UniProtKB/TrEMBL annotation:
Residues 56-243 form the Amidohydrolase-related domain. It comes from Paenibacillus allorhizosphaerae. It holds the Pfam family Amidohydro_2. This is Amidohydrolase-related domain-containing protein.
Length: 251
């Protein structure tokens, strides 16, 4: 069983994105997809509404496969209302933060508190770059700040923070921070390093589809993992992460 906790529908490319996701489910035996909509770096209110509507549509069309993240721009005054609509009306399972603000911006705090009340995870894009860092692109340090402030929040730091030797080190002492390794710019031993630092119990499989899938699948298959650790990463950790009856801290 495989649960992919980090996939996308690209804005304006609904048919292409969803077709790619469903073909991957069929080809690679993926049981469940957690999906967010993305387009521009600083989306306005209408773009946010359109992207969340796309995810909601996919959930309705593929109820056995698709679950959704509610995408919010914390800079918008209606961000709380957007989150409530996504969770309470659309039936989404988490919140998505991208690059409109740092994740530890005070405007994010009311959203995190709402997610704590819902007992849902927050998927946080996190990427530390040598060049090309976006103005409000979260790194592991920002995630650590948020985890310190809200130890009861379920935080899913994406991409191993863009550089696992930077991102993982920043948050390894915060048990409410989980990790995915979605995307393609990673070395063979990154997953081994992450397991050594935070344990397999805090790592969730994600691919960043429709960008890539096989790179991340190959990382799990090639890593020095036990069969039990692979099961944790492929699906068991995701089941726990999205269980609303459980806290943000893996036991």
């Amino acid at each position: 069983m495989i649960i992919d906790a980090h996939t996308h529908i690209w804005g304006g490319k609904y048919d292409d994105s969803t077709r790619t996701l469903l073909e991957a489910c069929e080809r690679f035996g993926i049981s469940k997809l957690y999906v967010s909509g993305l387009k521009s770096h600083d989306p306005d209110e209408s773009e946010i509404a359109s992207l969340n509507a796309d995810v909601s549509r996919f959930m309705r069309e593929q109820p056995d496969v698709a679950e959704g993240y509610c995408y919010v721009n914390p800079a918008h005054p209606d961000a709380i209302s957007v989150l409530k609509r996504g969770i309470e009306q659309y039936g989404m399972s988490g919140m998505k933060l991208w690059v409109a603000t740092f994740c530890d911006d005070p405007r994010v705090f009311p959203l995190v508190e709402q997610c704590i009340g819902y007992q849902i995870p927050i998927l946080i894009h996190s990427f530390h770059k040598t060049v090309g860092q976006l103005p409000y692109e979260t790194t592991g340090i920002h995630v650590a700040n948020l985890a310190e402030r809200y130890p009861e929040a379920k935080l899913l730091m994406a991409h191993f923070g863009g550089n696992c030797y930077h991102g993982i080190k920043a948050v390894r002492d915060y048990p409410n921070v989980w990790h995915d390794f979605s995307g393609s710019p990673f070395r063979r031993d990154d997953l081994d390093y992450a397991v050594e630092q935070v344990g397999a119990e805090r790592i969730v499989f994600g691919s960043d589809m429709p960008i890539t899938y096989l790179v991340n699948y190959g990382q799990v298959e090639e890593a020095e993992l036990t069969a039990e650790q692979r099961e944790l990463i492929y699906y068991k950790n995701a089941i726990r992460l999205f269980d609303r009856g459980l806290s943000g801290r893996p036991s």
